[in-house]
Design goal:
Length: about 325
């Protein structure tokens, strides 16, 4: 048996806060509509910051807190669907900025909003082949750069940000994971790269139905694998922060106790691959997530993809 031991996490958000009220000055929407349908009040948008700046801020914080240096990192993965460049990857740029060794395995992966958990699984699997003991797993997005700011169906939903984790393999631990993809369903599409300006197109209702199905299903499968009787046997559940109604619906279906499912989309919107590590960092900093706790995470989004993990913090 082996599982990732998450040594530390970090986050970095752009400075600019964009409220629903501000968006309502340029598109036909309102704080009332956006908050009641999504649980989002505001999000952060990059002005001068790049995706690399965000990834670097989160990675540095996580490495410092983990007490590791560049000499300890053998794998560097960045989950993103909005990299600064198609090439070089954000992971390679991070390697340069952090001074990681030439023998570090560096690449970006695109599993959209499930990207952090795909990265966690991949990094854990690659570590035995790496020449150093730790992996850096980052979720970093600048979604504002691919949004059509005249489309009220999507421009109110997303935000920019990055979260990072430093992990090590621990042979004394075990974890349970679920992964899946539905490449035949393209209810979220992002145009580009190319001469046509990028834009997100989403069939919100179809994605909502998909999300509640796979989130509930993944949680039930992870609980069964763990031998847990109820979601209330866990200490925390962190879902991808796309919509408070998705989280609340699943929590209700599973008869979860109040507060078990964490929510922070009110302040950040949907930050795709960054949403889970950003939430983890908030929970650790607040003292809510502590060593030994049993935590379940589920991501879902474009692809379509989904991923879940149940582990001990
Ligand atoms: O990370 C990727 C995963 N993504 C998701 O999980 C997204 C999942 N889907 C959702 O979160 C929801 O479907 C949305 C929040 C995107 C939309 O909520 P909804 O309750 O499904 O609304 P709707 O799309 O059915 O729209 C209802 C009405 C429409 O007007 P009509 O046709 O009924 O007259 C929309 O045009 O609300 C209108 N509308 C808006 N009104 C004010 C859509 N966007 C807005 C807006 N402000 N921003």
């Amino acid at each position: 048996m082996s599982a990732p031991h998450i040594l530390a996490v970090g986050r970095c958000l752009p400075n600019r806060v964009v409220t629903n009220e501000e968006l309502s000055r340029t598109v036909d929407t309102s704080d009332e509509w956006v908050f009641s349908r999504t649980g989002i009040h505001s999000r952060r948008f990059c002005e001068r910051e790049t995706g690399l700046d965000l990834a670097l801020g989160a990675a540095r914080q996580a490495m410092e807190r983990a007490g590791v240096t560049a000499a300890d990192i053998g794998v560097c993965l960045v989950g993103t669907f909005t990299p600064d460049h198609a090439s070089p990857s954000t992971a390679c740029l991070l390697q340069r900025e952090l001074g990681l060794g030439e023998d570090t395995i560096c690449f970006d992966l695109n599993a959209a909003c499930a990207g952090f958990l795909y990265g966690l699984k991949t990094a854990h699997a690659l570590l035995p082949d790496a020449s150093r003991p730790c992996a850096l797993v980052v979720g970093a997005e600048v979604i504002s750069r691919v949004m059509d700011m005249t489309d009220r169906n999507t421009c109110v939903l997303f935000g920019d940000g990055a979260g990072a984790a430093v992990i090590r393999r621990d042979e004394s631990r075990s974890w349970h994971t679920v992964f899946g993809s539905r490449g035949d369903q393209s209810s979220i599409r992002v145009q580009g790269p190319g001469p046509v300006p990028s834009a997100i197109h989403m069939d919100g209702k179809a994605v909502f139905r998909f999300a509640v199905e796979v989130v509930e299903g993944s949680i039930r499968r992870l609980l069964a694998a763990d031998g847990a009787e109820s979601v209330n046997d866990l200490d925390l559940v962190v879902c991808h922060q796309a919509n408070a109604r998705i989280v609340d619906y699943v929590a209700k279906r599973l008869k979860a106790r109040e507060g078990l499912f964490y929510k922070n989309m009110d302040r950040y919107g949907n930050t795709s691959a960054a949403s889970i590590p950003v939430a983890l960092d908030e929970l650790v900093q607040a003292g809510t997530l502590r060593p030994g706790m049993r935590i379940l995470m589920v991501g879902f989004g474009g692809g379509l993809t989904w991923a879940g993990a149940l582990l001990k913090w």
